[in-house]
Amino acid sequence: HGHGHGKGLSFGPIETQDRLVDDVVVPRGYEWSTIIRWGDPILPGGHAFDVTAQSEAQQKLQFGYNVDYLDILPEHPRDIRSMVETRRGRRGLLVTNHEYTNPDIMFDESYDEATKRAVQRAAHGMSVVEVVRRRTGDPWTYLRVAPKNRRVHMDTEFTIDGPVAGHDLMKTVEDPTGTTVRGTLNNCAGGTTPWGTVLSGEENWHGYFKVAGGDPRDARYGLSSSPTRYGWELDDPRFDTSNPGYENEHHRFGWVVEIDPYDPTAAPVKHTALGRFKHEGANVIVAPDKRVVAYMGDDEQFDYVYKFVSKNAMRNGHSHWARAHNKTLLSEGDLYVAKFTGDSPAAEIDGTGALPSDGAFDGTGEWLPLVVDGASAVPGMSVEEVLLFTRVAADTVGATKMDRPEDVEPNPFTGNVYVACTNNSSRGSSGREGATEPNPRNQNRDGHVVEIVEGDQTSTDFRWNLLLVAGDPSQNDSTYFSGFPADKVSPISCPDNVAFDQQGNLWISTDGQPSAIGRCDGIFRVTLTGRKRGNVEQFLSVPRSAEACGPLIDLRDEMVYVNVQHPGDDGSFAEPTSLFPDYLDAGERGPVGSWRGPRPSTVQVYKKRGRR
Ligand code: FEO
Ligand code: CA
Ligand code: CA
Ligand code: CA
């Protein structure tokens, strides 16, 4: 490889695992352990997790549920050189999202419904946890009490900034200024910025609000007037926007959140300049002129890929002054949405995934402006409306409907951008758009990955191609791996999160393999350059019914990290289908007594050494 430095991660790909396998499977020569699990105490007063005595107050002092985004930041932000050139020493800051909750496997029948709802509100959000180890390359231990440990949950106060802050459509009876909001919802993927903050996407926030109904802009986000699955409107009037004073509460969710893990007292910020949609996450790269560019996906069938270009340039270094400036970069800038144009005749894109006659799904693209120089580029919509109802704005300008774009992340070595389109079972179904060159399969069960080649990160035009069209080649002949032989790759389906290692390899984690190809989800390395471009090698498999999230690869330490989200969510509390992560025998007493059910956890994988 021509990129980066450091030695690679040597491993033989693991076998793909049947969907019923309830284990973390790692390559020969590696072993795994958990760093922290749902319910582990992280703040003073937090008790060891007791599944029979959960409370809202305790959950606010404990690690939250369903872990998604994951990073381990160095002790000092000065050790963040770029997204992949972080030097992790003997102390670090583990930052994770807690996307949602699974009450059927969290609570026994002794809990009343109101308590269950309150615990779940406290189990949403984010965690910052200090971690330590004896030396680089050793596994980490988390600290139960440490100055930077922090839980963000539904009662944490956030600042709203950017063009929509203070607008009438952001005001409520609790916040007549429209500039602060309690809580964050459904935080899915994210990204760590070069200045050492973490971005987090508010994704399926619509499911927590009962709205008055009748506003087509609300309908475009899937909001409805039916009671919600979570039922929080029974406890707090703000979750039913037909309550007087709360008409705008749902406008205060659906944003990209920025948290500074180095400053536990700073309120996290919701950045309205990056638009409001079902944000999977956001990933920042620095352009040659030092402006910063954030790439984002809106994870919904037939929704869009976006990019934000900051107005101001990044300041180098991690002085207090530089960091304070850099933390304002996402407050003001231009917002674009992607239009992909194929270069093959439409008739050659037949929906089966068969390659067109030029041998590639590829073409050119354009970043269509939504907001430029502080002005709306969308006819009939103000800047505030474009940013609040971004899906409607993108519909208006004719953006390209994608197959659920999830993580969108630039390769820090090449600037090429990778879009994980996880799947789209509705493409080509009655009344819905059929296959296009960038989304070439109808009933796209297995998903694909788009590679965007930018001129410069701030360019408004680009070239693109499909790096891979996913699936299990043994049961699907419409897979494509950039020309690499399909019989030599690990089967892969439903790409969700992407990451890069220090050699510029792409890593993918999946969500949905059990139902798509009957295999457990996992994490995979994909070679991007040279003869082996397109080779997919599975590194790890997660337990039954779990999703693999956030992968973090550190070649310096020969370590890989993964968040194991919703293990055993096909079971019940009484009859768990996953015993991850403690795998207790029946009757054995473990860290949570005799309860054997699953706990979403952060997992570390490291080289086996004799001395362990
Ligand atoms: Fe929370 Fe789009 O995954
Ligand atoms: Ca083509
Ligand atoms: Ca995801
Ligand atoms: Ca990522």
Please, could you describe this protein's structure?
This protein is mainly beta. The chain has helices spanning 56-59, 103-106, 113-123, 216-220, 320-326, 383-388, 390-397, 513-517, and strands at residues 30-37, 67-74, 91-98, 125-132, 141-142, 150-152, 157-161, 180-182, 187-192, 198-202, 256-259, 269-271, 283-286, 291-297, 301-303, 305-313, 333-342, 362-372, 375-376, 402-403, 405-410, 417-421, 448-454, 461-469, 495-500, 506-510, 522-526, 536-541, 547-554, 559-565, 601-607. The strands form 6 sheets. Strands 13, 14, 16, 17, 18, 19, 21, 22, 23 and 24 form a 10-stranded antiparallel sheet that branches. Strands 8-7-12-11-10-9 form a 6-stranded mixed sheet, with no helix packed on it. Strands 2, 3, 4, 5 and 6 form a 5-stranded antiparallel sheet that branches. The chain is globular, with a radius of gyration of 23 Å. The two termini are 32 Å apart. The structure holds MU-OXO-diiron and calcium ion (3 copies). The site of one calcium ion has 7 residues, from strand 9 and strand 25. The site of MU-OXO-diiron (FEO) has 6 residues, from loops. Residues 422-446, 590-612 are annotated as: Disordered. This is PhoX family phosphatase. It comes from Myceligenerans salitolerans. It holds the Pfam family PhoX.
